[in-house]
């Protein structure tokens, strides 16, 4: 059995939200599942926040620097991905501006510190993919997910609620607004645990939940679906859930976070 950890990362939204004690601990629940002794390559899939992308993009850098040590980008895997014709190169400015991948780098460095000279990273910026594109990228990346030496990190927050996010879904039957948000999030989390990409797509269409990493999640779910065709057994479990604040009125706002792990047997 081997672990392929999937992180829903608390610090993704920015430092002002991670001031909440419950939120800042969310990523640690996922990173504690990492086994650095078997991990030789770390794929980090994060959503694009600043530039419009209809495909996925690769970094122009060779190395990412962290406060702990430098993380080397796997140029061999990059070359293989580039040959498919499915990827573009993001600009250095885009790379520097985007936080969805960056926020995972110190966690990755710390989790892998005992084997820091024995692994590389594969950062992938994921655009606003169509359903067919999520399937295409999922199928492409499935062979890497099947490799026990590869670790996948999926960067996403959950519900962004409030007028500032232009999303104020509220199911009054759940009680306070924050309880409605949690019910909505946990509905989506339950569907992700089923590892069914179509059900997740339908959930997003119905509720429009503002899950910023919905496309990286969709790529992962489609990669899992591809591997299941060959009889590979997998299960996903969420380990932690938190909100940046508890919304009680229409002037409030919050971002939700969760951490989970995918286990490939």
From TrEMBL:
Gene3D superfamilies per record: LigB-like (3.40.830.10)
Stored InterPro entries: MEMO1_fam
Transmembrane segments: none
Domain of life of the organism encoding this protein: Eukaryota
Pfam family, one: Memo
Similarity comment: family membership: Belongs to the MEMO1 family.
UniProt protein name: Protein MEMO1
């Amino acid at each position: 059995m081997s672990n392929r950890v999937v992180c829903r990362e608390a610090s993704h939204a920015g430092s002002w939200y991670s001031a909440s004690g419950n939120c800042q601990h969310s990523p640690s629940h996922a990173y504690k599942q990492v086994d650095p002794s078997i991990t030789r390559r770390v794929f980090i899939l994060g959503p694009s926040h600043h530039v419009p992308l209809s495909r996925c993009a690769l970094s122009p850098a060779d190395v990412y620097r962290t406060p702990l040590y430098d993380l080397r980008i796997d140029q061999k895997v990059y070359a293989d991905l580039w040959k498919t014709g499915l990827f573009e190169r993001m600009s250095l400015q885009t790379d520097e501006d985007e936080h969805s991948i960056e926020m995972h780098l110190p966690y990755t460095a710390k989790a892998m510190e005992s084997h820091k000279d024995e692994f590389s990273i594969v950062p992938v910026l994921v655009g606003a993919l169509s359903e067919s594109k999520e399937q295409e990228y999922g199928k492409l990346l499935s062979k890497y997910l099947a490799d026990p030496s590869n670790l996948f990190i999926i960067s996403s927050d959950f519900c962004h609620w409030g007028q500032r996010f232009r999303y104020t879904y509220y199911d009054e039957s759940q009680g306070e607004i924050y309880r409605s948000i949690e019910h909505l999030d946990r509905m989506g989390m339950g569907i992700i645990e089923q590892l069914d990409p179509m059900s997740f797509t339908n959930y997003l269409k119905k509720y429009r939940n503002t899950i910023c990493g919905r496309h990286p999640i969709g790529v992962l779910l489609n990669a899992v679906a591809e591997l299941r065709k060959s009889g590979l057994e997998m299960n996903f479990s969420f380990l932690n859930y938190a909100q940046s604040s508890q919304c009680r009125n229409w002037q409030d706002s919050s971002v939700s976070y969760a951490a989970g792990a995918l286990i490939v047997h």
